[in-house]
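We both want to read discrete structure tokens more fluently, so let's practise on a single case. Would you supply a protein for us yourself, any chain you care to pick? Would you write everything just below, so we can both look at the same thing?
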Amino acid sequence: MLGTRVETAVETAVEMTGLRFAYPDGVEALCGVDLTLRRGEKVALLGPNGAGKSTLLLHLNGILRGKGQVRIGGVTLRNDTLAQIRAHVGLVFEDPDDQLFSPTILEDVAYGPLYMGLPREVVHERAARALAQVGMTGFEERSPHRLSLGQKKRVAIATVLSMEPAILALDEPTASLDPRARRKLIDLLRELPQTMIVSTHDIALARELLPRTVVMDGGVIVADGETEAILSDGALLAAHGLEAF
């Protein structure tokens, strides 16, 4: 494995230890994953389809619960800490239609803070700030289903930013975007201060935006190190169904 790391507890944002998960049909998606992210790190998660990337992301806020331990900001994921951790981790799905379900954009972006029980004036402030961050101010009363795919993806990010998470986990954020929408999204992600883990097939995105890369295949981590070093290793990429452009 590339890039062995020594972490300090003070800086740790995410710690997964011995994480295993099998789907009901018996397919083992995670086979003993150990992964640590430092606070403020921007990490690409690469690998072929079926490598376990999306399954790993879904463990960050307890949507899936496997064997092993998940700690977020020093807090162990358990039934009694689930709400706390879900407020700490913002998960953005590949398909924004899985995340946008309200009649208006404002209602979608305000949903998380309302669910947290915050006062309405605080909810409004957070929603307005999140929409401004993603460049969607003025779209509050628009139906999500009348937006372009790029706009939907930005609104989906706003729905988690309104909860002010410390960690963002994004699944294929640039998938199916045209070049202009992709560039806007990359520029947005660059400006966000959160710890970030991004599952992607977009090698150019990883090279431009994410200094550290973790490669998964067959439910395990096969490489972990500086993005440039990993993307320069043609043999490694070829062995795991990846290609640097």
Residues 102 and 108 are 5 Å apart (CA to CA). The first strand starts at residue 12 and ends at 22. The first helix runs from residue 53 to 59. The beta strands are 12-22, 28-38, 42-46, 67-72, 75-76, 89-92, 167-171, 195-199, 212-217, 220-226.
